[in-house]
Write a structure and sequence with these properties.
Strand content of chain B: 25-35%
Number of domains of chain A: 1
Oligomer: heterodimer
Number of helices of chain A: 7
Largest interface: A-B, 27 and 29 residues
Radius of gyration of chain B: 20 Å
Number of strands of chain A: 0
Distance between the termini of chain A: 26 Å
Number of strands of chain B: 13
Shape of chain A: flat
Order of helices and strands of chain B: EEEHEEHEHHHEHEHEEHEEEHH
Order of helices and strands of chain A: HHHHHHH
Largest sheet of chain B: 6 strands, mixed
Shape of chain B: globular
């Protein structure tokens, strides 16, 4: 018997998550659609069919990060309460299978469902906006057509990897928080996250003030221009970017797995 | 077999719950785990289920280290806690989800238990009372046919007919291959069922003996007056005189009264330990 991974046990865990939560998941889907429709309606200028790219960008980010983190916390709700945690821990499946079920829902099921919902609503509003524009068309003047979000937007495509990276970090961080804290895990995780951000910001500020300014000063004293330091800065920010997107989320996920494995109730 | 060796356990800086606890539980018995509030009954069951980890020592269940919580270990153990969680689904959906994890689960058996407890598998957990939920979970626990069955205060919240149904059902599933451990305060509810008896207090096992061994060494009787030379370990005033527990020096036959035994063990710890060790 394989005590680490068995596909049958894993599929039973996936089924269990769906059967026990299907009503809530379906209600959440309707909730997200409703909120997206309301916000899109508010940002659209109904008389001209214009909608602002920056507002759509904000809606996308806010709804993705907020609903994603709430969902990630919910998926591991089984271990944030003593009674449900007891029941969850005693399901005859491995810690890895239980962890992987959470990962599957958070990192695969959620983005697929969210993006589908977002684009269905976005597509609807793009069509509505374009129809309004067509109705106001002045002969001989070319209309600016709305396009579906991100796919046709050059500016946003450039920041896409940053969005995905930040989203992965937040999802992994919330999963870890859900495995760590008992009761009100979402609030506690948010508090811990902001505290860490504040601390990091403070450290970066201090190092920038005392170390980097000193180095810059030394370079300038030796007669080098500021421009010479820029490539080094780019390398540092590149390394940091790779670390944040590709290294930090896996570290957080491995930590979550061990939190789950060592969980006592 | 459940083998606990030199197990120590505590909740952080507080007084240790167990200190070097040694205990062996064998198949074919329904163990009764007794102790005052906070004596560590639930903690011991949770250590056996792998939900709590010993600070030192080991807890081996069917040859597996409990704290590893491996699937092979979990599929042969069912733990019914005192306070439990039920998902917001129908009983039959619950069975659909959880039964496939237990290779020896019997649906026929489960439906019989539901019938005995006058429940339908079409009912939703959210629409059941606490006692009804507990009965459904007891039925499920017994139908998993696991080798080890741990129950924490199983009769709490059950009505009077359900308690006798529970006794009947447990007696029917107590096979030679199974270890059943029941922790309880309601000794009267389970008096006829539990044997051997384990009494925990002060971070240790004060008594671990079968009722046969107990009645061999102790005598439970009713007397009108209590004299000093009766070697009384415990006495309790009752309507008809005094219920007493004495050393059984004359090989008298008596029926073990678990409530008296429990009180006698707590009040005369040293004598009881000397008698049984």
């Amino acid at each position: 018997m394989n005590n680490t991974f068995d596909f049958n046990r894993f599929s039973l865990l996936v089924k269990r998550q769906w059967v026990e939560n299907k009503k809530l998941f379906l209600m959440a889907i309707f909730g997200i659609v409703g909120i997206l429709i309301i916000i899109n309606s508010l940002i659209m200028r109904w008389e001209s069919g214009i909608t602002y790219e920056i507002a759509r960008f904000s809606i996308f980010n806010l709804s993705l990060f907020l609903s994603g983190s709430i969902f990630a916390n919910y998926v591991f709700k089984d271990i944030s309460d003593k009674n449900s945690s007891t029941s969850f821990m005693l399901i005859p499946a491995s810690h890895f299978e239980k962890f992987l079920t959470g990962v599957l829902y958070v990192f695969m099921v959620f983005p697929i469902v969210f993006l589908t919902l977002f684009y269905v609503v976005d597509y609807g509003f793009v069509n509505i906006g374009n129809n309004i524009k067509d109705g106001l068309k002045v002969p001989g003047v070319k209309n600016i057509q709305l396009h579906t979000f991100i796919i046709n937007s050059k500016n946003i495509r450039e920041t896409l990897d940053e969005i995905i990276g930040s989203w992965l970090i937040i999802q992994a961080f919330v999963l870890m928080g859900a495995a760590q804290f008992e009761g009100r895990s979402y609030v506690k995780t948010a508090f811990m996250g902001f505290a860490l951000l504040f601390l990091m910001g403070f450290v970066i500020y201090l190092s920038g003030k005392f170390i980097l300014s000193d180095i810059t000063q030394q370079f300038q004293n030796k007669g080098y221009s500021r421009e010479l330091i820029k490539p080094t800065k780019d390398i540092i920010s590149g390394i940091l970017r790779i670390f944040l997107i590709y290294v930090l989320p896996p570290i957080l996920l491995v930590t979550t797995y061990f939190k789950l494995k060592e969980k006592q109730v | 077999m459940i083998q606990i060796k030199n197990l120590s356990f505590d909740y952080g800086k507080r007084k240790p719950v167990f200190r070097n606890l040694n205990l062996t539980l064998k198949e074919g018995n329904v163990y009764g785990l007794l102790g005052r509030n906070g004596a560590g009954k639930s903690s011991l069951l949770r250590n056996m289920a792998g939900l709590l980890f010993p600070t030192s020592g080991t807890c081996m269940v069917n040859g597996h280290n409990a704290q590893d919580r491996l699937p092979v270990f979990l599929q042969d153990l069912y733990f019914l806690p005192e306070e439990f969680h039920t998902p917001p689904v129908k009983i039959k959906e619950f069975v659909d989800i959880y039964a496939p994890f237990y290779p020896k689960f019997s649906l026929k058996q489960f439906l019989e238990y539901l019938e005995e407890f006058q429940l339908s598998d079409n009912e939703k957990f959210t629409e059941l009372s606490l006692g009804q939920k507990k009965k459904a979970l007891i039925g499920f626990a017994l139908s998993t046919n696991t080798k080890v069955l741990l129950m924490d205060e199983p009769t709490n919240g059950l009505d009077i007919p359900s308690k006798s149904q529970f006794r009947k059902i447990i007696a029917s599933v107590a096979t030679d291959e199974r270890i059943i451990v029941i922790s309880t305060h309601q000794v009267r509810d389970l008096e006829s069922l539990i044997d051997p008896i384990i009494i925990l207090d002060n971070s240790e096992v004060l008594l671990n003996a079968t009722t046969e061994e107990i009645t061999e060494k102790l005598c439970f009787k009713m007397v009108s007056t209590v004299t000093e030379h009766d070697m009384v370990l415990y006495s309790e005033h009752s309507l008809r005189g005094f219920s007493i527990v004495t050393q059984n020096v004359d090989n008298e036959h008596s029926k073990a009264d678990l409530e008296l035994l429990f009180n006698a063990t707590l009040t005369s710890q040293l004598q009881i330990k000397q008698l049984f060790n």
